[in-house]
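Quiz preparation item.
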């Protein structure tokens, strides 16, 4: 039995960019582009109609920007995951998008295979947090945002010592393989720790875990990146 293709909507205000992404994704046998949008308002409407697995969301769009569109998709409780498209000069906007409910981000000039891989990761319910690159970018976001939630011991006390340790690694952009290597455990064990800490803290995914860790001062901007 053939698996269902991952259904994708492309939201970008530049027609040539949309056409380029569609061309790249049409070459993937397991990905199907089911809609396009030229602004954030259209993006939300198309997502509501098509209910895709993933929406590629540009940030700078007319009418409604990608950040607000991501917030509306998340607030609507739709199963669609938001993968933000950006460039490094839009760092502060990316952080806002992650806070709005996006599941990760990709650089617009990323190779086709990386874009396709990111879509598969996000569609599978994971978050697109590129190790080290993400750590640097998140550091920049938090430095600029300078916003910290007060630490709630009730929230953090739900975690075991090992889960707290894993959360710290996540915030530095570590992959499951990185964490497993550093802690001398299997990747399956790391996945279990990640699932448990997300459930205990009421977080949706790894992106929210990163934001939580920085906002609560579990890690600070400028700390060492993920283990190598």
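Solution:
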């Amino acid at each position: 039995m053939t698996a269902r293709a991952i259904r994708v909507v492309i939201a970008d205000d530049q027609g040539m960019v949309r056409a380029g992404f569609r061309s790249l994704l049409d070459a993937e046998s397991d990905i199907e582009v089911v809609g396009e949008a030229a602004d954030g308002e259209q993006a939300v409407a198309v997502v509501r109609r098509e209910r895709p697995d993933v929406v590629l969301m540009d940030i700078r769009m007319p009418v409604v920007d990608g950040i607000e569109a991501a917030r509306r998709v998340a607030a609507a409780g739709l199963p669609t995951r938001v993968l933000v498209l950006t460039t490094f000069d839009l760092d502060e906007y990316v952080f806002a998008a992650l806070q709005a409910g996006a599941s990760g981000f990709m650089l617009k000039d990323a190779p086709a295979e990386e874009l396709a891989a990111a879509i598969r990761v996000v569609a599978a319910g994971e978050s697109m947090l590129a190790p080290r690159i993400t750590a640097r970018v998140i550091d920049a976001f938090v430095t600029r945002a300078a916003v910290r939630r007060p630490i709630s011991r009730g929230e953090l006390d739900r975690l075991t010592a090992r889960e707290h340790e894993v959360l710290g690694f996540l915030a530095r952009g570590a992959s499951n393989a990185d964490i497993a290597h550093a802690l001398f455990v299997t990747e399956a064990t790391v996945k279990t720790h990640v699932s448990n800490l997300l459930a205990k803290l009421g977080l949706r995914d790894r992106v929210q875990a990163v934001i939580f860790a920085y906002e609560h001062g579990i890690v600070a901007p400028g700390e060492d990146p993920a283990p190598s």
